[in-house]
## 1
Amino acid sequence: MEGGSGGDSQRFGKMVVESKFRRKRRRGGTTMILASTTDTEGMMDQEEEEEEEDDQLADVLEDRKHQPADVLEDRKHRDGSIYRGTDYWSIYYRIADTNENYMDCLRNCVFNRGRDKPFIVNLSDPFILLSGPKRGIGMETPALLEYDIRIKRGDGEDDDLQLINGAATISETELPPPYAQAYTRRIAGDYGSVNISLALLHNAIEATMHIQITEVRGSGGFDMSMACRVGQIPDEIKLFESVAIAKPCQLNKRFVLAIVKRGILVLDLKVKRSDASEEEEPVCMLRGLKAKAHGQVILPMIFDCATILVERHLDDGDFVLFNRQPSLHKMYIMGHRIKIMPYSTFHLNLSATSPYNAVFDGDKMNMHVPQPFDGDEMNMH
């Protein structure tokens, strides 16, 4: 699935897949999926009839709460039909007169899982945890959301059931004010439906979070979970759950979050020793980060069993240092203001290569990112 997505209104950052062959009922804000039954004799007593009416009423209320998404008709993700035609969205995104390579740069995978590593959805917890985009992008309205979700049934791809496949648009005109809250939209398919939650934040900035475990004390390791709350959205965003840590390392996960300027990002980190009993509660720590444009934040979180660093990565307008190797005899190190681009490389304008004496015949260029605030301040001057 490609595009932007969130989760349920109570569990922002997840996606629920509900089977169409089952009846659903809401109790206390939790989705319960019940197996459907058939009355073989065609007779029901009064109690069963009342229960059936309650189920129908619950379905009606559920449908009103989760309004359908603005799905593009006769468009499929797999056959490339979303890039053809003269619809307003095709003209807006200039899809008709751009090549596929250009569109690939604008794409941002929320999650991408193949048949070899499918999600296992349990009836007791029918949610898929989304770790967030791979990189930050300019998500402005209207946004185009592409999706392709299938249910694995056998060894071959032909045996799979197509849940949903297509594209939908997300626009601020569809969201009633205030925007700073989670809204749920439903995408219906042949064998089920998918609920997607989203929120539109005005005057916001992006922050890429990276988690690093610098020290592990004791033996046996620990389990770690992290969630956060962003500004005016009361719903908790789950970043990851039950990650086992045995030695110092960097988590192979980066999370792109949006924070309203002058707002507060509240981090909720939970740590529990691996050898602890089930009755033992995890140790919780709440820390707040204030949004700062083009700033860098390194937040240490110290527990009895470990020391954890939460870092905010590069953003547009940050400063870095470049140098040539070997340096030879010309000016070999300078500071540059950067612009974040897709892919894992950097581009340097030809007009800035002369001081480095770099002629691109095998010369090596190194990029250095100042970590402390004083280093960043010296780079600016």
## 2
Amino acid sequence: MSPRIAVELTSARPDGTWTWRAAGARQPKGVLDGKLLPAGASIGDVLRAEADIDIEGITVTTVLPPKGERREPERLKVIGPPRDETAVTTTGVERGRGGARPHEGPDGRPDGAAGARRSPRPRPERDRAPRDHAHRPRPSGRPAEGDGGAARPERRARPPRPEVAPRPKARKLRPRRVHRDALLAGLPQEQQPIVEQALRGGIPAVRTALAEQNAKARKEGLPEAPNNAVLAIAERLLPRLRVAEWLDRAEAALADADDLALRDLRSVVVSAEDVARDEQTRQPAAKLRAVLERRTEAEQALWQRDLEQSLESGRVVRALRLSSRAPQPGERLAPDVASRLAEAAGTAMTADIGVDRWATLLDAVAYSAVRRSVTPAGVPAEPGDELLGQVRKHAGRVPAIAGLFGIEAPAAPGRRAPRRRPPVAVSPARVAASPGASTAPPGGAGPRARRIPPPPVVTPPPVPVVEATPSAPDQEVAPAPEHPEPGVP
């Protein structure tokens, strides 16, 4: 669907076209076909139009007629004096201080004829055996009648937990567009649409927009835009655009360096490796890297302290969730802290707690850093469908706990075998054009690829062996020459 804009007609040309501009502004402006205008259109009218916006400009395709006056629905007019009547009549009756309503007696019964006819009379006691409350089965946890509730077990008192100071919420990175707008303002007007497409999706977005525009121009019989020239402009301007965007993000990160979310700060530092090649970007990148190291060390120490405090105060669920939220990616728990956390989680998962509490602990264990080391102290006797659903959900993450409920953990997904590239098909023309190719007989098989023979094995010449002849002890034997020269005896 084409975007809609409000246009103001500024002038009419002799060739039947009209000039327009955006309503209430000087830009953008253009020319539209007079056949699109409704009857009675004049200069100064503000109309709604549908337009196609591309690299070359804005083309108005449809002009919608102005909205007419809204017609009110027909209503019946009441003739006569108005009547002040309410649709619903309610009458409130106040209750007296003693609690009885005006029409009730002192005992709460109606004071009418039915209540007045009854007179209090003594009822004779019936002959029945006394009830034995001691041998009557009672639900567990409920006291017997007549004991005043003394048999109800007292609630276990919890030790006061130390209050954990709430941590301030980290701010999100909200960069401005100072450097980006300055770069766009310094570019020629014809290059700005190219830059806008490059900012949206890089070079692929420019190729897509260029292909759509050329396809539309081909249908309308208009000249197509040169692909190579437009892509060259985009490739030349894209590094400058990335630097401008990174500078905007870096300035926003430096302004809120102490309160910014650590994840956003790390993303700015990591992206600096692609742009920190000159003094303009190298200095902010060094400052951000130093801030990141300082913030990471402080967050790491605070994370360790919160984890230990949660374990000491008995907040097992909070400690389990904190174990998987390390400030530094890939950070592992200390061995002593990990063993304490696994032991505390296993001790808390008993058969005496409620099913909801057991499910909460299971969910926290499944996403913690010690999920493979937790052994529950017991499981509920009647888990229920909700808890069994949670166990099936996390069976792959905690197979040992799933086995306690008789649920088999799903098999781990195997590694996918690398796909082999299909053989490259060689065209017969290319094989025939290659040097040393043999032509196949007609009706036979196609040309086959040449097989390169292995290099020949070079065997060194044998070395002649000189046998020593018996001679006198003092006589020396001269060695025979390996390669005698021709003519020498």
## 3
Amino acid sequence: MKPYWLMIVLGILTVCLAGCCAEYIEPVTQVVRIDGMHCEACETSIEESVTVLEGVHACEASFEKGNAVITADDSAAMERAVDRIRKMQFTVSAPDRE
């Protein structure tokens, strides 16, 4: 009877540890230009709307700079963030090159 319990425990541990060894993927950070922000409420609205999206880790918007810094899992999550901002009636584009 004991060997069966040992096999069951080892099987459970194997399944639990399988997820721990998944490859880590570095998040993507992108600065996007946002036209149409006029105040801190615009910043807050964008940040709160974007950070709830799956795969988006952070969003820091600045109406003074006219941009947002978005950190996401991958390009698909980044595109979801940009789409959300556009649906809020802001214009989103690549940042100006200096």
## 4
Amino acid sequence: MDGLCFGIGWDVVELGERIGIFGSFARGENNADSDLDILIQLKERISLLKLVQIEQELSDKLGIPIDLVTENSLKNPRLKRAVERDLIRIYG
């Protein structure tokens, strides 16, 4: 996991106040088909297009599918609790 955290890079860190991973990678249950779930609290608003672009760049860089989720998008309380339960903060 340390390699993945390092691989996320400064380009993403510059956009976020806090960044963490959740899901199967955070729980240590990932397999060859797993994506990497990343939660980011953005410093400022960015377009959906920019968010998708960052997600694709990270996926290309790390060689695995990425699911980039902003904290503001977690409206469902059950989903938010599940994310927070797994969350491993890697920045901020």
